[in-house]
Specification:
Helix 1 packs parallel to helix 11 and helix 21 packs across helix 22. The chain has an 8-stranded mixed sheet, with helices on both faces. Strands 2, 3, 4, 8, 9 and 10 form a 6-stranded parallel sheet that branches. Helix 3 links the parallel strand 2 and strand 3. The protein has 23 helices and 19 strands. The chain has 716 residues and is α/β, with parallel strands linked by helices. The radius of gyration is 37 Å and the shape is elongated. It has 2 domains: 243 residues, Glycoside hydrolase/deacetylase (TIM Barrel, Alpha-Beta Barrel), CATH 3.20.20.370; 380 residues, Alpha-Beta Complex (Spore Coat Polysaccharide Biosynthesis Protein SpsA, Chain A), CATH 3.90.550.10.
Length: 716
């Protein structure tokens, strides 16, 4: 057959080596982290495609060493009395022990190596070469070559040659197809791979021990023993799984056959052809080292990514379980401020359910709220709580907001107008003008339940409580964006607030519905304009002043959520950026005592971990799950992602039950994970970048339609 060059695809002109290197780098990224680490390689002979189909009779009846450039001729056979041991799927942790056994018995063998494993264990490959063993290719990532595109086959072989060249200084013309066995089992799929391979000697086997099935030492020895003194190429494995039986079989097989007069040698010596090695040139070695370096970096990144993915998944599960446990604790009435009594549940006005009846002023900052201001003020005026003072502060609106409120002609409603100064300024104007001991701060697009003010006030009967958060519900739910936000409000915001209440570290009372003791506002210095999240800033300041902040889920208010992705982005960008500002502003609470310390050591770390760090890292979970699903044989990450989705759905069902909401909208949870959650991640990334670069935003209102499809008049 003559001496064969080491693979025709390596003979590309040197002027194109940069282009080839770029292709190899890309290929390394795509293929280098394939599922070989799972131990699946070599664990069977059932490749990706059907193994039916004819092969030339001369090949199937010939010897196991086939010249891929002369597929019309039969393969070569080992000389009588000659045994060529071959090992597939290495190098692995077992390979060094195989080499020890061979060295002990003073025999050589042929190893068909995986390029990706050579890159991990180059010292073992150099040891093979130094011991006089032959080395052949078994591809880079163990695919069935006939079942992949031609470019993938070239990439698999070329990458393996480059890595071998960098490791030993040589390339090889020996090739063993993954999932192959004896020539008699040749199929059309394998013939396709052989024709495309180029200038190689493809090595099959006379005797396939099937040691990958771990059938037992005696069975392996029987399968590796030729009959009547015939020579044989014997197929075994040194990688791809547990090879302890193979090791034990070698210690039995080699002495037994040596005693019977057999000679152990390499494949090329057994069939009587020249050395398979061809000296690699500098460009091949350079490309090989580039691939090895890339794979090592990729392996490190992959390991870190795996740790990160499961850490993020663990944190997410921990958050969900914590929310569930604390929400259950809260729902059972553990907080001492949980005041809805039997009389309130029976429908009596809250004022009749408690002796605590302080004066109440409602402050409504409004900027271009013409669409919903009438419904908002009318709902406040219809409150069951007696003698409520309502102050609307028009902050320079240009749409007639003030005129609409005056047109309602409600006796207990006052309208104050000022030049546009932002929401904090409007709130402070209303606070200064209010006469009530308790101040309810309400956004201009919010509709209250008749009992809401009374429930809020009742929660302040405890003199230690300085402020109380109500339960904000999305009123426009018909569209997909509205459903997403409805789910988020019920699951995320309200479960979090129940947990914060139990832990006494409430960081935010939403602008839509909250009540404050005037003394607490005074201690906090009223509403600051130093952050974009004035509600979070104010709540944290009240905590640091020593007041308890609680959550009352029965104090329900309905708000109009953004109806377009653009509006949603702007709102959440402001919220997230403002929260980052507030966290930084109140970072000193970490070392303080009392209520401030609870905020600093419970609330702030939770916000940092689950509203900043986790959203920054969580996209990696999604990317890793997609990669695992499409590019590896192990779908553990995809299954982890799916299990997390199921857990979220169960959490959602519980949260909806707590909030007395219909579970029908929960069909949107899957789309929420795929689209909405990614949007929120990007919001956090942009907000963090803005905070780092010191970008400042101004307060602005989201355009409103005033149309709510859920609320007091249209219960969900």
């Amino acid at each position: 057959m003559g001496h064969l060059a080491a693979g025709r695809h390596l003979a590309a002109p040197r002027s194109h080596w940069l282009l080839l290197t770029a292709g190899l780098l890309v290929g390394g990224l795509l293929l280098g982290s394939h599922a070989l680490a799972s131990g699946a390689a070599g664990e069977g002979h059932g490749g990706q495609h059907s193994r039916s189909g004819p092969a030339p009779a001369l090949l199937t009846s010939g010897g196991p060493v086939i010249d891929t450039t002369r597929l019309a001729r039969p393969g070569l056979r080992a000389a009588p009395g000659t045994i060529a041991l071959t090992f597939d799927d290495g190098p692995s942790d077992y390979t060094s022990r195989v080499l020890d056994v061979l060295q002990h018995h003073r025999v050589t063998a042929t190893f068909f190596v995986l390029g990706s494993e050579v890159a991990k264990r180059p010292a073992l490959v150099r040891r093979m070469a130094a011991a006089g063993d032959e080395i052949g290719l078994h591809t880079f990532t163990h695919p069935e070559l006939g079942g992949v595109p031609a470019w993938r086959e070239r990439l698999e072989l070329d990458q393996s040659q480059q890595v071998l060249a960098a490791t030993t200084g040589h390339t090889t013309n020996l090739l063993r197809l993954p999932y192959s066995s004896t020539p008699s089992a040749l199929t059309a799929v394998e013939m396709t791979a052989l024709r495309r391979a180029g200038n190689y000697r493809a090595v099959f086997a006379d005797l396939d021990t099937s040691d990958w099935q771990r059938p037992g030492v005696a069975s392996i020895v029987r399968a590796a023993t030729p009959r009547d003194g015939a020579g044989a190429v014997v197929m075994m494995h040194d990688g791809g799984g547990d090879r302890s039986q193979t090791l034990a079989a070698l210690d039995v097989l080699i002495p037994r056959l040596q005693a019977a007069g057999y000679r152990f040698t390499t494949v090329t010596q057994a069939v009587g052809v020249g050395s398979p090695f061809h000296r690699a040139d500098a460009f091949q070695r350079i490309r090989g080292w580039i691939i090895i370096g890339l794979l090592r970096v990729g392996a490190l990144v992959s390991s870190l990514l795996t740790i990160l993915v499961f850490s993020v998944a663990g944190l997410s599960v921990l958050r969900l379980l914590s929310q569930l446990l604390f929400a259950r604790h809260h729902a059972r009435g553990a907080p001492t401020h949980a005041t809805p009594t039997h009389a309130m549940r029976a429908g009596a006005p809250p004022a009749e359910a408690t002796e605590y009846r302080p004066s109440v002023s409602v402050v409504v900052p409004a900027y271009n709220e013409a669409a919903g201001i009438a419904a908002s003020i009318s709902s406040l005026a219809a409150s069951h709580y007696p003698d409520v003072e309502i102050i609307v502060v028009d902050d320079g609106s240009r749409d007639g907001t003030a005129a609409i409120v005056r047109g309602l002609r409600l006796a207990n409603v006052r309208v104050l107008e000022q030049v546009n100064g932002g929401k904090p300024s409007a709130l402070n104007t209303g606070i200064r003008a209010a006469s009530g001991e308790i101040l309810v701060l309400v956004d201009g697009d919010t509709v209250f339940e008749p009992a809401t003010i009374g429930v809020l006030v009742a929660s302040l009967a405890d003199p230690r409580v300085g402020a109380v958060s109500g339960n904000t519900k999305v009123g426009n739910r018909r569209g997909l964006i509205g459903r997403w936000q409805h789910i988020e409000y019920v699951i995320g915001f309200n479960l979090d607030r129940r947990m914060f209440d139990v832990l006494q570290c409430m960081p935010t009372i939403p602008g839509a519905v909250g009540a404050f003791r005037r003394a607490a506002l005074d201690d906090a210095g009223n509403v600051s304009d130093s952050t974009l999240a004035e509600d979070t800033d104010l709540t944290m300041a009240i905590c640091r002043a020593g007041w308890r902040v609680v959550y009352q889920p029965e104090a329900v208010a309905w708000t109009e959520a953004p109806s377009t992705l653009g509006q949603l982005w702007r709102q959440r960008y402001r919220w997230c950026y403002g929260t980052l500002q507030a966290m930084w502003k109140h970072r000193g609470a970490v070392v303080e005592r009392g209520a401030a310390g609870k905020l600093g050591r419970r609330g702030l770390p939770y916000l940092l971990l689950f509203q900043v760090v986790l959203p920054l890292l969580a996209p990696l979970v999604d990317l890793a799950a997609v990669y695992s699903l499409f590019f590896t044989d192990s779908h553990r990450l995809a299954l982890t992602w799916f299990a997390f989705l199921v857990l979220q759905l169960l959490t959602a069902l519980y949260a909806f039950a707590l909030d007395k909401e219909s579970p029908r909208p929960l069909w949107a949870v899957l789309t929420q994970q795929i689209v909405y959650r990614q949007l929120m991640y990007l919001v956090v990334i942009q907000s963090l970048a803005s905070a780092i670069y010191g970008v400042r935003l101004r307060w602005h209102s989201v355009p409103r339609t005033g149309e709510l499809d859920a609320g007091p008049a249209t219960p969900a």
